Amino acid sequence: MALTYKISSFVKNITSPVIVLIGNKETEFQNGSAAYEKSYDKNYLVAEIRAKDNKVCIVLKENDKTNDINWIGEEQASFF
Questions:
Q1: Mean predicted confidence (pLDDT) in 3-25
Q2: How far apart are CA 14 and CA 68, in angstroms?
Q3: Which UniProt keywords apply (predicted)?
């Protein structure tokens, strides 16, 4: 079973139509709750929120610090 991720839970509070933009791929949702229910195979962070054509546009970027915290919640040691 592959690990899946969801976007930030604040998105559920958006009642307007939502466009989620990852790279150059747009996905449109009826509202924030529908956008939140979608699972992703990568961990994304909200990079930007803007209005576009009377819709809320959420730009996601991949979280490059996914593994900075170990399984017990401690930050990994950095030797550099």
A1: 93
A2: 30
A3: Plasmid
For position 5, what pLDDT does the model report? 86
Residues in contact with 1: Cβ distance below 8 Å, sequence separation at least 6, in sequence order: none
Query: pLDDT for 26-66, tens place per residue?
Result: 999 999 999 999 999 888 999 999 999 999 999 999 987 65
> Which residue in 26, 73, 13 sits closest to 52, CA to CA?
26
Long-range contacts of range 60-68, CB-CB < 8 Å, 24 or more positions apart? 60/7, 60/20, 60/21, 60/22
Q: Does residue 38 contact residue 6 with C-beta atoms inside 8 Å?
A: yes
Chain centre distance of CA 47: 9
Give residue limits of the domains in the chain: 9-62
